[in-house]
């Protein structure tokens, strides 16, 4: 169980980092952090691969939006 959770988390983080080339630092941190937290919550709440992947996707999206909101409030 832990091995599959680690594999899914590693995959989610690597995909999240690869897709962040045009994002600001706050958006990257929000996306990756949200995906990791969402995967852990999804696995704990519903269990299984589907819950983990769904949690990672939802967490990554919400984390990205939080990063965008941060950038709007704190322009360089």
Model description:
Helix content is 84%, strand content 0%. The protein is mainly α and 76 residues long. The chain has one domain (2-73). Helix 2 (25-45) packs antiparallel against helix 3.
Please provide a brief summary of the model.
84% of the residues lie in helices and 0% in strands.
Tally of helical segments = 3
Order of helices and strands: HHH
Mean pLDDT over the residues:
82
> Could you say which overall geometry the principal axes of the C-alpha atoms support?
elongated
> What is the number of E strands?
0
Largest sheet: none
**Structural class given helices, strands, pairing?**
mainly alpha
Instruction: Give the C-alpha Rg.
Output: 13 Å
What's the quaternary structure here?
single chain
Report strand %: under 5%
Helicity range: over 70%
What is the number of domains? 1
Low-confidence stretches are none
State the end-to-end CA separation: 43 Å
List the helices and strands and how they pair.
Layout: H1 2-18, H2 25-45, H3 48-73
Helix pairs in contact: 1-2, 1-3, 2-3
Provide the descriptors you would attach to this structure in a database record.
76 residues; 84% helix
